[in-house]
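Appendix B, Record 12. Input sequence as logged:
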Amino acid sequence: MAVLTNTNFKMSAGFFRRFEISFLFFKGGIFIKKDGETQQLLDEYQRKQIQHDIKIFMEQYYKQKLGKGVELTKVNICEDMLIIRGERFLTLPELYIARTSSGEESVRAARMQVVLRHVMDNVPYFEERLNAKVIRQVYDVDSKNDFWMHVMVFDRVLA
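Logged structural output:
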């Protein structure tokens, strides 16, 4: 197996400005060497498999914690981000309450506590599954449209 390396490759702008990057290309995938550390990027099959695993995990998590699962869960891994979004997770009474402006804020506040608990419970799982550390994250609940989202930025490029 031939390994092709270029240790003098430097990008002049963007995230990689401070790092010397080596690309190792071989049959199994692409490896990036950053500060002497070699890490494998996820290929398309691995990325889709992990996205599916996290989707199933999230559906089971909400079913277990709330007794009602999210009807639609989408998980996307893009570069150094993991994006999880869910739709139709509010109960019928919550939907009824959320029709008013004060009720919308009340339902949002209550569900933000659920999302905060999700963050505390599940970020370690995501870090272990993706072999990377979360450096930034944002999450929000839109109770009027019955939608929630959690975006995590990791310390390395994933795919």
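Residues 44-154 form one domain.
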